[in-house]
Automatic annotation (TrEMBL), chain A:
HAMAP family in UniProt: UbiG (MF_00472)
Biased composition (Basic and acidic residues): 344-356
UniProt gene name: COQ3
CDD domains cross-referenced by the UniProt entry: AdoMet_MTases
Species in which this protein is naturally found: Nyctereutes procyonoides (Raccoon dog)
InterPro entries to which the protein is assigned, alphabetical: SAM-dependent_MTases_sf, UbiG_MeTrfase
Classification of source organism: Eukaryota, Metazoa, Chordata, Craniata, Vertebrata
Designated name of the protein: Ubiquinone biosynthesis O-methyltransferase, mitochondrial
Annotated membrane topology: Peripheral membrane protein
PANTHER family membership: METHYLTRANSFERASE, UBIQUINONE BIOSYNTHESIS O-METHYLTRANSFERASE, MITOCHONDRIAL
UniProt: S-adenosyl-L-methionine binding residues: 121, 151, 172, 219
Cofactors: Mg(2+)
EC number: 2.1.1.64, 2.1.1.-, 2.1.1.114
Length: 369, 469
């Protein structure tokens, strides 16, 4: 892609560095065209490889594009939800996942940590959903429930939910992922009937599926979207009142940079390089505030810890790396407080929970870490 | 990974499917009609039938399809035959718990079984003995005829027929293993071809087809095995007089162990492991001689030597000095009057252990995974232990919505059971070799060892606990 187009000045500079930095090749492509889609541009290369010279150039480009993005957003705030050209999907992320689209179902391959994460996330979803029903069918505990799996990838989490009896719709913006997922479930007649896959983003289906899902699952997704506010708003819209939203994601801390990016991606290769960008990680406090401001009452936030030696995940008190959150849409038809668009989330203040939660039903169990 | 899978592969025709993902199903035109089972158990013996039953009654398997393949015909049983069968098994409390978890134990109780409360094991070459019993004289184990267990399992399978299908007279002749995930266009399930040409697909194949397992061979799993130079003779014996008969007796002769297991007040079952020639002799000799041979095997002290006797007595004094409370005097088993006609049968013995119990979409249980000498009465109990463990892992996996053939929980089963079974197999083999000789140093070693073990109650309790699982 980058070979065919005339290189701009910036590209040439990056081309110089490109031989050392694997991420830079993809970035060169990003600069050409694609102006209609917002993107974040972050350095993905080993920090210690930089010389001062390169740092200057990277910083200047980063500031330029950050400015441009900010300007664009302020100009067209109302187009976010309804225009397909502005979306929460990040095209760079699409490219990363495209390269690995056929490796989803190798349990010992690149996606092994996601496979073993099912041992935590499936019981998490299942048990929290079972709390909302009086009795369930043995063998098919989730039967009768409609679940939306946003960013389903190859269907790693969609299939277990389908096996537990739920009707699941899985959506993913990467076409190849959906093909892989579709192909994989086609061999199992039971799953074939219970699961439906669609290519697309959440915004595209909001209109037709408003208030139809008992649960929405966005596992390892919110750290890849551009506009989290919109994303959460859409999640809320497609949920039935009293429906559950399940999110698993990565916290934005020093530790998550050191372990999640430097160690996991660059040193140990546990996660494919370029999968995550630290700027997009989100802290539980910020996530909670966005959820609450959209009318979703947070029930649980728990930390998850991955042991790379054993390959297993464990629940943890500590949310500084990975964590899971469960929020419930309020049953009463209250107007969600309009979300302030937040570009830099680090200075967000937590809302006072007590004032907004008076109308929310049920017992609140909040395990804030 | 590819090297681990079996030789027979299905050569799929080149992919005609382009972008349409569902087109891949079209190639398997016969396969479309095949049901995809969740679990197929190959082999309907005691352990295979128990596996199918346990899955059928498991709460998380209510939505799943289970199939049991049995090569033999269905045994129709009007009522309990009066004569006892000569093949019996010693069922440990752990196995009894498993059988009662799906309601089969109640049927056994309604038919017949015998509980025993004590076990005496002693040497022919010395006075050493070990006596096992539970403190409050609880049941240590149960002697049940294999036919009775099979009948109980069949009844429970019939009661669960909406979840478990049983195919009799169906022998699997070929297995096709799935490619690793990268071969995207082929079916990910195990294909089984039956003798009549029909095929099945399954997400998990459980091999329970005995020590010459076809499943294990088809998968190419290495099996460490050797034949013992011993055969076992079984028979049903009538005792001279009715006794309480709740003790299991086993004496280690130099030629092999002889065991008397209680069946009723007047009947006991014999299991005599001895050399092939002697076994053939025993089966063919006339009744009276046979009965005499049994009685003298249990009672005769011909193999005692003075040296060993005095050495043994020495240790006995020492033990009595340190622990004066319990004195186990050697007791004699009841004498045998006659043997049931036509109940004498012999079968060869050997040891076997599969190097791997699991492969992707495959698990081995029972004799297919391990074969052991009957001297410890553990063969079928190890099989039931396998069933227990595998059902536990599969149930948890089903409740988590996992793919049943996934190695992640199958390796959990393998680790659990290999640890237990390897220890037991090694111990049994060691005992067999140790007691197969009358060489003085070894006799001395085992005499003192047995006496010491008998004296240390915690050690005995540990052994009993391990064997009752």
């Amino acid at each position: 892609m980058w070979g065919g187009r005339p290189l701009s000045c910036g590209n040439r500079l990056l081309g110089v560095l490109g031989s050392r930095c694997r991420g830079a090749r993809a970035q060169a492509a990003r600069f050409t065209g694609r102006a209609e889609i917002q993107f974040n541009w972050t350095p993905q290369t080993k920090p210690w490889v930089f010389s001062d010279y390169r740092i200057m150039w990277f910083k200047s480009y980063r500031m330029t594009f950050a400015c441009l993005s900010r300007m664009k957003i302020h100009r067209y705030p109302w187009t976010r939800l309804y225009s397909t050209s502005q979306t929460t999907v990040d095209s760079n992320e699409i490219k990363t996942f495209l390269a690995l689209a056929h490796r989803w179902w190798d349990e010992q391959g690149v996606y092994a940590p996601l496979h073993s994460m099912n041992d935590l996330r499936v019981p998490f979803i299942r048990d929290n959903l079972l709390k909302t029903v009086a009795h369930h069918q043995p063998g098919k505990p989730l039967s009768g429930m409609k679940i939306l799996d946003v960013g389903c990838g190859g269907g790693l989490l969609t299939e277990p939910l389908g096996r537990l009896g739920a009707s699941v719709i899985g959506i993913d913006p990467v076409d190849e992922n959906i093909k892989t997922a579709q192909h994989h479930k086609s061999f199992d007649p039971v799953l074939d009937k219970r699961i439906e896959y669609r290519v697309g983003s959440l915004e595209e289906i909001v209109q037709e599926t408003a208030e139809t899902f008992d649960a929405v699952v966005a596992s390892e997704v919110v750290e890849h979207v551009i506009d989290l506010e919109t994303f959460i708003q859409c999640c809320c819209e497609v949920l039935k009142p009293g429906g559950s939203l399940f999110i698993t994601t990565i916290n934005k801390t020093q530790l998550s940079y050191a372990l999640g990016i430097v160690f996991a991606e660059q040193i140990a290769g546990i996660v494919p390089k370029g999968t995550h960008t630290w700027e997009k990680f989100i802290s539980p406090e910020k996530l909670e505030s966005i959820l609450e401001s959209n009318g979703l009452s947070v029930q649980t936030v728990t930390g998850m810890l991955y042991n790379p030696l054993s390959g297993y995940w464990n629940w943890s008190e500590n949310t500084s790396l990975n964590y899971a959150a469960h929020a419930v849409k309020s049953k009463a038809q209250e107007h969600p407080v309009p979300a302030e668009f937040v570009f830099k989330g680090e200075t967000e203040e937590l809302r006072d929970k007590d004032s907004t939660d008076s109308t929310n039903p049920g017992v609140q169990e909040e395990l804030k870490k | 990974m590819a090297a681990r899978l079996a030789a027979s592969r299905w050569r799929a025709p080149p992919a005609a499917a382009g972008p349409g993902p569902l087109l891949s199903c079209r190639r398997w035109s016969g396969a479309r009609a095949d049901a995809v089972y969740d679990v197929v158990v190959s082999g309907g013996g005691l352990v295979g039938a128990a596996m199918a039953c346990a899955l059928g009654y498991d709460i998380h398997f209510h939505d799943k399809k289970i199939l049991l393949l049995e090569a033999g015909p269905k045994k129709v049983w009007e009522k309990l035959p009066e004569t006892y069968s000569n093949r019996v098994s010693s069922i440990s409390p752990g196995s009894a718990t498993l059988l009662s978890s799906f309601g089969a134990w109640d049927h056994i109780c309604n038919m017949r079984y015998r509980a025993f409360r004590r076990m005496q094991v002693w040497d022919a070459c010395s006075e050493a003995l070990i006596m096992f019993d539970k403190d409050n004289l609880d049941d240590m184990g149960y002697i049940v005829e294999n036919d009775v267990i099979m009948r109980a399992l069949t009844k429970q399978l019939e009661a669960a027929s909406d979840r478990v299908t049983v195919l009799y007279r169906s022998k699997a002749v070929g297995y096709t293993w799935p490619y690793p995930f990268t071969m995207a266009d082929s079916s990910p399930w195990v294909h089984i071809t039956l003798g009549d040409g029909s095929t099945l697909q399954t997400k998990l194949l459980v091999g329970a087809d005995g020590h010459n397992s076809g499943v294990r061979q088809a998968a190419g799993i290495q099996n460490i095995s050797w034949n013992y130079d011993q055969s076992a003779v079984v028979a049903t014996l009538h005792l001279s007089e009715a006794t309480e008969n709740n003790v299991a007796w086993q004496r280690f002769l130099p030629s092999g162990p002889i065991a008397l297991l209680p069946l009723s007040d007047t009947l006991s079952s014999l299991v005599w492991s001895t050399s092939h020639e002697h076994a053939a002799e025993l089966v063919s000799m006339d009744e009276e001689k046979f009965v005499d041979a049994i009685n003298s095997a249990f009672w005769s002290d011909a193999n005692h030597t003075d040296f060993i006797d005095s050495a043994g007595a020495m240790l006995q004094y020492a033990v009595a000095f340190l622990k004066p409370t319990k004195v186990s005097a050697r007791q004699l088993p009841p004498s045998v009057a006659r043997v049931d006609a036509k109940s004498r049968v012999l079968f060869p013995l050997g040891l076997g252990h599969a190097a791997e119990y699991v492969r992707p979409r495959l698990a081995l249980i029972g004799d297919a995974a391990h074969r052991v000498h009957p001297l410890a009465g553990q063969g079928v109990n190890m099989g039931f232990g396998d069933v227990s463990s595998l059902v536990h892992h599969l149930s948890a996996a089903a409740f988590n919505g996992k793919d049943l053939g996934s190695m992640s929980h199958l390796t959990g089963y393998e680790t659990d059971r290999q640890r237990h079974n390897t220890a037991l197999l090694a111990a049994t083999d060691l005992l067999k070799r140790l007691y197969s000789t009358s060489a003085t140093p070894l006799v001395l070693l085992r005499t003192w060892g047995l006496q010491a073990t008998n004296a240390v109650s915690p050690l005995k309790e540990q052994i009993m606990a391990f064997a009752s699982k």
